[in-house]
Design goal:
Helices cover 10% and strands 36% of the residues. The chain is mainly beta. The longest helix has 11 residues.
């Protein structure tokens, strides 16, 4: 059994233009997820989509802490975000790229790119985003609430369960059932991973029948539910069991509602 951070391997994998999938998803429609960001890593001549992120406001973005520790802290280089993207091959007038000026990871996340609770971080941008029809912020849920039902997830992560990894040009989307924490804990026992679950700070998605999952390069991407035109963000993708989409294996996300006070304290400037 391998526990798998849903972060892109920055040296391996290939891009493709498939007909689907996150793992089991579909192409998103242009502009369907205006809060979605591509977190890009730059190092010497390497430039690559590394993780997902979401827009908090004009100056701040939300992602997984390991997206930062596995790149800038461990390997060097710089980060930027691309807003308003849909197909990496076809930039539009809506698209904006802004450098990441600084970041703050949750103090209880141990760093080192490990699978651990509190895998959440915020990033201050060097310039403000300009909102338009395809660049908009998320809305946070009521603090400490528990989401139920079905969430919608988006990302540019790996679409192939077996190696080699294949990364899409087009943003992917998938509807994912939200599991109870007892369901999530119990199913992780078979993988020896239940001790990694933060019952007070995570949210899990299925289905446990397999074939639908976040995967590498989906880390940091948002899970949420629509309320009219507002996207209520409930989760920040963190980890799953490898290979992605295994029967009985959930996707684990940091639960945004558990961290709202911490987020607000760190984006107050």
């Amino acid at each position: 059994m391998k526990i798998f951070l849903v972060l892109v391997n920055v040296f391996l994998g290939c891009l493709a233009a498939p007909n689907g999938w996150i793992i089991g998803g579909d192409n998103a429609a242009p502009g369907e997820f205006p809060h979605m960001l591509s977190l890009q890593w730059h190092f010497i001549d390497i430039r690559r989509h590394n993780c997902g992120a979401s827009i908090i406001n004009e100056w701040w973005a939300l992602t997984a802490a390991h997206c930062i520790t596995e790149t800038v802290i461990e390997h060097g280089g710089t980060l930027s975000v691309i807003a308003g993207a849909w197909d990496f091959r076809e930039p539009t007038e809506f698209q904006q790229e802004v450098a990441v000026e600084r970041f703050v990871n949750h103090p209880l996340y141990p760093g080192g790119g490990v699978v651990a609770p509190h895998d959440i971080g915020v990033m201050r941008l060097a310039e403000p985003l300009i909102f338009n029809d395809r660049v908009k912020p998320v809305v946070f849920p009521v603090p400490n609430t528990l989401a139920t039902g079905t969430g919608v997830f988006s990302g540019w992560g790996n679409i192939q369960s077996d190696p080699p990894a294949v990364f899409p040009y087009i943003l992917q989307r998938a509807d994912m059932p939200i599991l109870t924490m007892s369901e999530c804990h119990d199913t992780l026992i078979q993988f020896g991973a239940s001790h990694l679950l933060n019952l007070d700070g995570d949210i899990c998605t299925g289905p446990l029948t397999g074939g639908l999952s976040a995967c590498s390069a989906d880390s940091g991407s948002p899970l949420g539910q629509w309320d009219g035109d507002d996207f209520i963000q409930h989760g920040v993708a963190a980890w799953t069991i490898f290979p992605c989409g295994r029967v009985g294996a959930p996707t684990v996300h940091a639960r945004v509602a558990a961290y709202i006070d911490w987020i607000n304290e760190n984006i107050a400037d």
